[in-house]
Protein 1
Amino acid sequence: MKRLLMIAWREYLAYVRTRGFWFSLLMLPVGISMIVVAPMITARSTPTPTVAIVDLTDRRLETPIAAALSPIGSNAAPMARIVPPPGGPYAGRADATARLRAFLEGPRTLPDGRRLDAAAILWSSGGGVTIDFWSRDVGNASIQGAINDAVKTAVRNEQLRAQGVDQAKLNAIDAFNPNTRDFSPKAEHSEVKLKDRLPGIAGGAIGYLLWMVVLTGAGMLLNSVMEEKNSRILEILLTSASVPEIMGGKILGVAAVTTTILTFWATIGAVILTARSPELTADVAAFLVANGRWAYFGVYFIGGYLMFATFYVTLGAFCETPRETQTLQGPLMILMSIPLMFMTLAFTHPDATILKVLSWVPLFTPFVMAARAGSQPPLWEIIGTCVMMFSVTALELWVAVPAFRSGALASGRFELRTFVRSLGRR
Amino acid sequence: MTAALVLEGVTKRYGAFTAVNDLSFRAEQGKILGFLGPNGAGKTSTLRMALGLVAPTDGHINVLGETDAARVRHRIGFLPEERGLYRRMTPVAAIAFLARLKGVSADAALRRARDLLAAHGLSAAMNKPIRSLSKGMAQKVQLLSTLAHDPDLVILDEPFSGLDPVNQQSLETLIRGLAERGATVVFSTHVMQHAERLCDHVVLLARGQKVFDGTVKAAQATTPRHLLLEGVFAPGALADLPGLGEMTETPLDGGAVRAVAELRAGAQVQSILRAAFDRNLDISRFELREPTLHDAFIGLTHDGEVHA
């Protein structure tokens, strides 16, 4: 045990002293900050586009269009800034098109020096209105959509007014929005609140987090063992400690590394969440504490980590170069992406049948069961999946000891046949 | 005498391939045993069995009085053939870590690491990352890491490979020092000169089989001595000298000839010299060549065939 702890401590220090560790530690908070900050930076760095509205319909559609493009809320930026149509008056649609194109294509600017970004030419056709929308930026359809909606509403209102409906009534109809209330017998007070949706969201999120942490840790182990085999340190370790001590030490050391990263992330997350919404923090904490969920997640984290760590450590003993580990990780990641595809369901339907089925596949158990935490799986499912998961892990450990030794002492490139044969050494 | 390592009828097979076949030998306590053989002879497999890293297919191994090397791993020091250490660690940390794995306390391990590094001229490098050291220095650090726990049995797999002549010399001194303090040293090599200078006892291995087990002198005695004669004499003139066996003659400048002849068992060198003078042969060089361990090895494994 003493040797196991020594190996674990060395492994832990070896990672903590690398730049990569600190990069991993800061990556998530920086990433989350970027998700929050990036849209604001983008909005500030993008100038508000200018739009010229040429209404050839005599329906005075500029006013509703201007209202549609104006900012919603006092701090928001307008979708577009309406400018007087340059080069007018126009003899007709073709003339307007030709003159406006000159502003949209070339270097010609508006009288105030700005450039024209878009123009909408509205003309009557068959009793209706056609909008010719010209824009420098073909990828942005939002302005066109807003103009289209504004014109549609204005024309509809015009026709309703013609039918005798007064403006006040029209305004009341436009302002109508049903007051939908969400109820569920599963909700704490019948009416569904964010607190009631939290288990599904938190369970799904923790499932993804476990997947990421377990496979990151297992990948670190694979590379660590490969490096030690490559430098022949593994052979020296084998003369100084038993295989279970070496494997256990490495697994524990990397577990400590991932736990450090997770704890840091969780602390940062809790601080940010508390600063923004103390109630939500309290709800998340209550969710984790209720029904011993922290232990539930803990058991699946330990089971999942042990299962994958043991496999990857053993595999690493057969690899001598980073290329070999990368080649092996490719197909394994494809296999491990299967639960990810279905785990999105856990946010909305944590008790979906496919998730229940996948829970019984030992390789997927830890992640899928964590994602299903919100639906409170029955005790028999928890016990059954844990028995399956830990049985597979125990079997793995049993065959891994001679396989690890065999791999550590073997030379040459990785061969699947040799690896499989070594697993059968028991 | 007590043996630190005993192998009895040890065989190791990997599938159909027999790496080591019915091998028996003893490494006596406080002595230096050279484990010799060409590449692929089965040296590394044997050492790994002795260390308990792989189990023999057949036979018995006793290490420091135990049948399971794992029970005495804290008393064994091992240097593998291919070397490497934790590149980001400092020499002092790496040596102390490996010593601690062998049961040395943290304080003692650090102290011992510093003392060893200082004693071998590595004081200035002890706190630098190993990756910044020269190859020779890194190899020295690794060797010291096998000795930091004062092992009773030191097993070195090809310890001289990759070392420059100066470091080879210092390693020879180190090995002698280990034996002087009572440790048993077993080292494998395919360079016979090291074994010749260092070993009390050699075991020669070829194709997984033992071809010799005894002292260096006894190994040399398995090969005939040779006599070198140079002078101006007719080809074949030496053929009837007493005690000479198979002979090769090479013409030299000025009509001289160099003859190298095998000495038959029991042949007296003085008698041969006297007989040559009696026949008025013009001999300018007369030299007895004792067989080297290399000669013995070649003789014992003639063309790779084993002649036990």
Protein 2
Amino acid sequence: MSQVIYSDIELLEGLAAGHRDAVTALYRSYHPVLVRWMLSRGGMEADAEDVFQEALLVLYEKAQQAEFCLTCKLSTYLFAVSKRLWYKKLAQKGPLLSPMDEEQEEGAYYGGTQPEDDLEEHWERELQFEQLEQSLEQLGAPCAALLKAFYVEKKSMQEIAAAFQYTNAENAKTQKYKCLSRLKKIFFARTPGLKLK
Amino acid sequence: MLIRTVGLINFLTMITENNISDWAERYIDHQLNSDEGHMLDMALQHDAALKASFEASVDLIRMLRSSGEQQAMRQMMAEVATDRKAWAAEYEKTPRQLSFRKYLRTGAVAAGLVMLSSLATYFAMNKGSQNSNNQQYTLLRRELESIKHSQSKIIDSLSKDKEPQDQHPARFGGTGFALTNDGYVATNFHVVKDANNIFVQTNDGETYSAYIIARDPAADVAILKVEDKHFRFSKSALPYAIAKSTSGLGQRVFSLGYPQEDPVYNEGYISSENGYNGDIQSYQLEITANPGQSGAPILDKNGTVIAVITGKQSNTAGTTYAVHALALHNLIRTLPPENTIRLSENNRLSRLDRTEQVKKLRDFVCAVKVN
């Protein structure tokens, strides 16, 4: 069984590009460690799975930002994020379960990358995605499907026109504009004063 | 030059609220040439409302895209997570595996010898006449009788536990397990409720005096402390962690308890996430439990303590109830500072097979005897 060993940089780039190999490699290297840690802290395997996926997602989001620069080892960063995610989960379950204070901060040297800030950013983003999802729901199925087909599935206007039974691509495009401006109204009415990066 | 200016003006008039999202899209995708970029700048500079609309479009399109990408990523991670053989191969292998082939020849010879000798014994025994066989049979029955006897005695004493003047050191008992190596023990509240004296009998047969330091009658858990300051369950550290979260339906579990003088192992599964009458603080388990097993730890396959046995349903065979380990955490938090318990941070059982797990666990499970 020969397995490619990736460097931290390669893993980050692979993750940012959404490569399955990179995700598998990250699982192979760090999942067992996290599971063991979680089990020792009274967590279940299912908790570990949740925490790990969430932490990878944070890393994925950061890796996509051009200005993101990992100043510590990938493992250190991933573990720091996972730890905070688990503590937050515990805190949600009940104030009595949060860990002893000394455990919270053990040497927070991550250089330029602050897991704490990155997590805040992540949660804010999650909130926005949720708002977006609700806005799309409010927008109605035909419009939401059209926008998703174009922006998410990246289908061409010709394909969309065929799939949604518009007479031609130009028509579909007009429809798309209308949908987007309606979505804009709904979304920004929901989230007044929203500041995006 | 002239033509170009005309073109510019035409384009300027074209940037409106109606097509702003198209411009936004091309701006994000870096599809605007320098002239167009310049035009866009001009148009936005002169019209604040248009600028706001443009920015909103940019934000929204970016968010639509990244939300889609994030969903795809989640999906892919979930796929990788279930595709365990792609990444979990090494660590799921049992830690120690004898290479069977290597020992095949020696093993075969040894097995042959054993068989030969046992056959020889069998014939020798049989020759000795039927009598010896009968004796073994009676012996077995007598032992059964004595077990029955002691069990009914426990039940007996349970029914009249209000009389404290008994000379016998243990009138009834349950099971407990270590929270720390230095003598904090978790058990059921109902085991120690009306106790005059509490004794903890460890795996090596030694008996120690203990007292209650915390109780939660509602959850039916109590924490005891062994009086002896030098007491240690074992030379090694506590091998298990206490769960801070709950386990799901179908989780395989096992338990070690003292329904008799020796520890008894049982295994089963979580059959319902809620306990008796829908009690959300406990699980319903399908696992054998006998009198004396109250207070026994329930561990999951990784060797994490997830619950404490509290009782069973009387009209069915294996239906047992166990309170969540969370109740222990909650109780520990109520302890005064001088009694603070620092729970084990290590689970040394997760990668062992079952017999190894139980072997390590034995030292930390004790009988709790009360009079």
Protein 3
Amino acid sequence: MKKSKLLSLAIVAVSFGFSGFGLGSQAMADVNPPLAALGPPPVPHDNPQTPEKVELGKLLFFDSRIGGDASVSCADCHMPKQGWGFNDPISRGYPGVIHWRNSQTVINAAYLGKLFWVGAAKSLEAQAPGAALGGVSGNGERDMVEARLAFIPEYVKRFNQVFGDDWPKVNNVWKAMAAYERTLIHKDTPFDKYMRGDKKALSNQQMRGLNLFKGKANCVECHNGPLLTDQKYYNLGVPRAEEWSESGLAQITFRYEQYAKGVTEELYRKIKDDAGLYYRTKQKSDMGKFRTPPLRYTAYTAPFMHNGSFFDFDEVIEFYNNGGGSNDFTDGVMAKNKTPLLKKLGLSDQEKADLAAFLESLSGAEIKMSTPKLPPYAPLPAAANVN
Amino acid sequence: MKRTVSSKIPWLAAFAVGAAVVASPVLAADFGPVPTVKVDAKKAALGKRLFSDPRLSGDAAISCSTCHVPQKGFSDGLALAKAYPGSDGFRNTPTLINAAQKAAWFHDGRIGTNLNDVTRESITETYSMNMDMRLMQERIKQDPIYVKMFKDAGYGEPSNGSIRKAIPEYLKTLTSRGAPFDTGKMSDAAQRGFELFKGKAGCSECHSGPRFSDDAPHNIGVPENPEIWSNPARHITYVAFSMFMGIENYMNIRRDVGAHIRTHKSDGSDIGKFMTPTLRELTFTGPYMHNGVIKTLDDVVDFYNRGGGRDPNKDPRVKSLGLSKDERANLVAFLKSLSGDPLTGPEHVWKDKINVNYAAIENWLKQRN
């Protein structure tokens, strides 16, 4: 009981803001949730963690038979060796296409209230099918996934043990994957140690960076709480992805996304950048807004921003030092939504280096994992034919 | 999904032919040749290119012509078809020659409307081409050759709707021609085979009309192809198909239920019915039957001579024929006389290399999408 109460508190803390505290962080600048060490990730009551479920989820995470042509798994865009993301600005996507946004790390995704760059999924259990079945990501299909799993005896056995399924059920694939992802967490970074009282965990330079983060640079305005994100949506004026102008493949996906997300034909014709939160809300005031990303594990997850525009911390810091940037949704071409929170910061070179040093403290040791050996297909036993 | 028998299908006449032992010249005319279909040349040319373009499949690995190979009578020469990568097929690829004139498509006849729907089904189905048509449209729009062809064909901007019109327009051009049966150059053996076909062998009971098909499903007791049930890649596809089609008990059955998916009779009496295939172009399209279990035309004729296979639902008209060796040879000669000129020239096959890479649209920021 006590444990679950703590968990609900954690959930409240994590999802702080989006609905209940939506008055604008400017007015409430002094009540930003404090930076803090990470606790255990929240676990939904309808998908409790068990070691067997986690183990099954791990196999499925690496199993390309979930994808449409059985050649891509979760781990192909969320690669353990690439920060559990993908180190190109735009993720590789399904064979024959390219994705249209940067692949986010899976590490600590378990703490997020909503997933994807504009919060399109409300849980890990909902994110997994979105990615596995999406046209430019896994391009899988539910019935085919279920059919394939039924021919892998090891999965039949494990789904039965974990979920009681006679035959593996596709919705339990997502549950197992989510359970596995709830183990892909990192809460013992130098920053966490510092927050738990080890004052030597941060170097002097990192301490100066932390003070800038909370003070002069005011990063904490949005990057706050234990995850270093308020999980709200802002338009910073991140420049459009270069791919749109340079790659035919990217242009195809860009138009496909407009079509698939149901924008008006008028907008489809003229839009030239990712309108972000707009696709969910269809509110012009949400154009170009993306969720504040967590800053944890970022030492391994470059490039940064929803479209991978920036290749390292220095470029990101320079961007903020200049008061952000401009795009079609800030300069009035499509909308004028740039957040007023961004102002020129006037940071010295030393201060920029200090901030970068602090960001390094949010990552800790790399989480490595090798691809598990996957169980093979086998024919089903002969059975009585009907009539 | 009961199909309506189209008035252009002379099945009544064909039935009469089957019943009458001696063919009259008037009724024999019902057998052929296959009438040509009027097509819009520009739309058909566009469809021809789309037909052989792998970008119409989800991972851009296969085109329509991967399975419908022009040199193999728009079939593939395999017992069981390939499928979208990651899967394998569980049925024999049917020829597309004269397919525009069918009344229902696929071996189970599950599409009984038009080629537009057949095209949609083939392109979008998970185990065939697994294509999201919205993505397909944007791919096609990225190719300047297509942009021009669609415009010239009167379709305006490329769209998934017009893709599904252009491919059927092309399929309408695939009409049999030059078969000895049509040109009057049948051998004597083939002539004698034709008489058996209409008479003693009773083939024309179902194989009637210019395409030699009544466009209806029948159970002739074709044995199961064990390859489907021993190869997970094929059996998986059948299981996924079963889920789509609402086949009961799909994890336990080890047989292709065929046209049962159209009628779902609770007594199962419709299980194992498959559409009567055309007999045109058979020399290019073996192996035979819905699951390719019969390799040669001689074997097909032997199969019927034995009275088909074993099945409680077998059509009672399929029974031992008592054909002599010569009679069987004559029937085979007749069947071979129904194959015409290969449709492999530029009129029917897109010959230019298709550049499947996508050039970036220049000056993209200034162009309307």
